[in-house]
Structure prediction request, 92 residues.
Amino acid sequence: MPINQQDQLNLLKDILSNHQTDCYGSVSECEQLERLVKSLISSPNVDQSAKAVLEEIYNYSQNGINSSQLDNHIEMHQQELSGWVDSINQFS
Prediction:
């Protein structure tokens, strides 16, 4: 059973928050971010400002998947992670 848009946003926010607080993550989490973002971007209910943030998160997840130093990648994006979580709170 597919999860609804609000659940997707909550899951997205949870993963990003964990990356921010733990400065740690896994490739599978980045792959999950990628799948969530793809699903949300394809939704007609998501506005353009939200899609811009989602595209940034998609790029972050792509770079994380391909990074040989994922923890460093996460650490370098602490400020963005915080901003993305705040943005998701505003449009969720």
